[in-house]
Amino acid sequence: MIQQLTITDIRNIVSATLKPSPSMNVLYGLNGSGKTSVLEAIHILGVARSFRTSRIKPVINRDSEVCTVFGRLGVTSGSVPIGVSRNLRDESLQIRVSGENLKSTSELARLLPLQVINPDTFRLLEGSPKLRRNFIDWGVFHVKHQDFFPLWKRMQKALKQRNSLLRHGRINGSELASWNIEFEKAANAIDLLRNEYIERLIPVFNQVLSELTDLENLTIQYYRGWDKERSLNEVLTSGLARDAQSGYTHSGPQRADLRIRMGKVSAVDVLSRGQLKLVVCALKLAQGFLYKELSSKQCIFLVDDLPSELDIPHRLALCQLFQKMSCQTFITCVEKEALGNCWLPETEVKMFHVKHGQIALDENPGQQRIRRAESLEIEHE
Known about the structure:
Glutathione S-transferase Yfyf (Class Pi), Chain A, domain 2; seven-stranded mixed sheet; globular; six-stranded antiparallel sheet; alpha+beta; single chain
């Protein structure tokens, strides 16, 4: 949970500090006011990069060469200070946790597990298998980090070496055979972890989906990346000529996927746009519920422009699920009325109005206790 967030030179946000609710946080205002930039800053704090672009230049304010995000995280033992800084001139990255430099972004991600729901997220079903692999591996990483991450690095190294040998035509020596063995060992272990995770996720997903919409005959199947009836060694051996011709490995955990179907047909081919969005929301929420169940911890949800993606009944159902999960959530929208009636009376909601560089914390009419209104200013360039 983020207790305090300080943003410096993220897009049009020159300097801002806010203390969010441990539950629901709504940022509303006109497009371009900086709402999504707050979510982007939280994402940088959690994984050291933006969810909107792979480049750092658009993220940093045009009058600066460095952007910084600082957060204070609430933990059982107190609070943990985290700072992430990106430099445009040399594209360097600095991460500090409790005053110490941190070199690994994977360790940073463990401290602040994030789930993003935005318009791009809905490509999860329609996009490439890589998006669905990333979805699977988010869950495995956060619930089986000590097992999964070293295996994933081993597999990537073996795959890189094998592909290099294939590209250079070195397929007859013992070196390829040794990397095949290493690749298969890591692949089988990764497949086991992924399969166990998906088996746990599916019943949670089915329950969440039933609370959002009624879709009969929708199923999720995990494809490991090679023929389930044969060992990976057999598949690699039989496919060596094709691999050598193309210069890369066609089979393995790097080809894993989730296959989501309605009966025998791909769900993408038969579901409406709105239904696909609900399925993706259910997948993301199911991960949040399962993470809480397996780790006794909570992830943070970043939800960008929720009302534009869902109609009123489904918007209400989704917000109720966030409250049921009791996770910290940040939601952006244009008009606060779009989310004004979505909260239970006991839910602590902070609504920040973003307008011309000003962010004011509104009172929540449904809140039973009276809180002092706070405000903060975000300077424009």
